[in-house]
């Protein structure tokens, strides 16, 4: 009977540990203890976050992108791979800016197929994008398990401001278990890890947040007298969708990246640059009505207004 | 077809070298003739030479069937010269190799005695005495010289030693006297080892062979610990290491590992090999175990001892170097690369990717002065080889395309910037290389590309368009 309280104590400690690892709210008793600790010891228990400087997004992210865990950035097709890579690198530039001593490099773990399809990171381009090519390491593993090992080792070594792991599609060997493992490693090491899923589907994973990145027409260059240079291609712009977060409704917004100031700005979609309406390849009625079979189901509802003519 | 080598049984029935096979078959119909395979003989000799590394790092190959071992300073480890010679010969005999050997202070004398005399340890004062009764062939001479000497009745080396030198040199050339002097130890003869000699080396001989990887790593750590003091004395740290594993049955494995910074810490050296052994796991067949482990430092550099500071900045460098070493040991040097900017305006030459393990310690690498000139924005991802793009309609003479087809997809250009003309480097590409006109292009879906035109409209050959990169 004497041992029972001891065992209970251990059990609670273990539960607390698990809750802390999983980032869930800790059980009530432990929470109370932590609050007391927080009052005494300040905000050291709070998870480090990276604010993006855009209020709407930061609120949805509960303060920003976690600096001690896994976040996923996804592109829906390989054509958009550079846009998603650009967003990930912009985040990395911010993380590097915030990292201590500003001397920590970035590790890019490339995927072989994606590199063949969309090119390899280019040092001068990185420089133009607001990153220091001297502090950028590029790893090209041959297989996925090597890439995963690299990511784990890099996060554990603590030598990198951020580790980017590029994955093509939804490989079978990279499922929930592996992403959970990576996420736990990142959390234990207190280092950010960005998973860059190129041309992949949405998939259940252990990440706290998942962004879908699509390209958007670039901003217009500003002349020194603050007038716009018509027809110019300025700072890159991303169409960002926050697919996974605590907030159930996906948030969609357009962000402009300023490489010189290393800062995000919310951008409005310019009127002239709106993507054209999705045109079908063969305009006109699809099929003639059949003669001797039941008609195809009629469309529900009724037309309220036609598309704008111009 | 002629006989090139014989075993003892064949010699006993009176067969000779250079005998025709048909003649030999006539003497002994049951003769088993195997075709000669010089490459396999060579591999065997290489294997034995590898095995001989256990006695000395200076092992040299000699012709098709001989080995020179420079045992200067090694004999006391094996209980003297005589014991060493017996150890070599008895071990080789147990492996099924019929070997003969001799120890003397001149390689030429050892060669002659091992082949023509009774192999033994020859003291310096009895060199002439031992050499005199040997046939002249023991001097490593060409066959014609030997035949000519024998015709003259100079059958033994002793006849040559006391003969006047000038007529000998005039008749047979300086080579004969050189060989004679070398056999007598009057002329220095260098033995060129087959492997570069490690600058530092330590080994552990085991009574009980080890097989398990953990044991090997543990021992490696211990050997590294014994190397640490020698490294400290030199003020150096190792950049390249080699772990030599001698298997019980005579096979020798060599596992090399590099480090991005000079290393001294035994734990980090052992950690290098733990990754390396993971990588070579399948090639390393422990068999019945390894009996000797040797750790060589093949390259070392000055080690600048730095004190830990409170900010932990050095700790960060150490962890980065440790990471680079681990990855390079496990996945190869080329897996992890860093970029360096060069003085070139041709996009693909402006950046060089080099293995991180080589560039990490050298610091910043080349200076980035190459990008001081004003240039347009560069894409985030560059194709190593530009891809052809189909352009049907472009502004003439040198405007951007209206639309283009790349990878079977039609892209309509909504905005463009350019051209930025980059002439190729005539000192590399030759004077005929055409300039490239680069355009930044945005299509109507917001994708941004970097495409260029090679050649000009209205000239022959007609211009071609290429996709070279993609902007974020």
Automatic annotation (TrEMBL), chain A:
Q: Where is this region: Disordered?
A: 269-310
| Descriptive protein name | Protein ImuA
Organism for this UniProt entry: Rhizobium giardinii
TrEMBL record, chain B:
GO BP, one annotated term? DNA repair
Q: Does the keyword DNA damage apply?
A: yes
The domain of life for this entry's organism is Bacteria
Chain ranges of the UmuC domain: 4-110
Regions annotated as coiled coil: none
UniProt lineage: Bacteria, Pseudomonadati, Pseudomonadota, Alphaproteobacteria, Hyphomicrobiales
The record ties this protein, via PANTHER family, to: BLR3025 PROTEIN, BLR3025 PROTEIN-RELATED
| Record-linked Gene3D superfamilies | 3.30.70.270, 3.40.1170.60
Keywords assigned: DNA damage
Say yes or no: keyword DNA damage present: yes
Family named by the database record? Belongs to the DNA polymerase type-Y family.
Indicate what this protein is called per its UniProt record: Protein ImuB
